[in-house]
Amino acid sequence: QVQLVESGGGLAQAGGSLRLSCAASGSISRINTMGWYRQAPGKQRELVAQITSDDSSNYADFVKGRFTISRDGAKNMAYLQMNSLKPEDTAVYYCKAFVTIKYSYNRRDFWGQGTQVTVSS
Asked: For residues 36 and 55, what is the distance between their CA atoms, to the nearest angstrom?
């Protein structure tokens, strides 16, 4: 059993900042990759940022230079620092982890329930 819990969403003004957190717990042998995705109403879920176990990161073009992904030393949490927010950033933000599961050593994606981010003009 692996679960991810996001926090830190809420309301922000355009140009403001929010910091999202994702905590992973459960039968984890290793978290290979963690990432943030978002989904706006009526839109496809899209990748925002991703970070690997060696702390390599990549970003969608629409957040490059504004958002920063990071993870802690234990590699069981990920963060998304969101600066210079725009109204079009409004979406539910989901944490995803690609996890090696304890004992079985199967690997699969796990998703959090999401946290709402709303940016007003």
From this structure: 14
Q: How many CA atoms lie within 13 A of 12 on its CB side?
A: 24
- Cα dihedral 5, 8, 11, 13 in deg (nearest 10): -140
In this predicted model, what pLDDT tens digit does every residue of 16-52 receive, in sequence order? Answer: 999 999 999 999 999 999 999 999 999 999 999 999 9
Decide: 91 and 38 in contact? Cβ < 8 Å: yes
Rounded Cα distance, 92 and 31, in Å: 23
34 sits in which H/E element: strand 28-39
List, in sequence order, every residue forming a beta bridge with 96; answer none if it has no partner. 35, 111
Q: How far apart are CA 80 and CA 5, in angstroms?
A: 13
What does the pLDDT read at residue 1? 84
The whole-angstrom separation of Cα 11 and Cα 73 is 29
10 in Cβ contact with 118 (< 8 Å): yes
Determine the Cα–Cα distance for residues 115 and 97; give it in Å rounded to an integer: 15
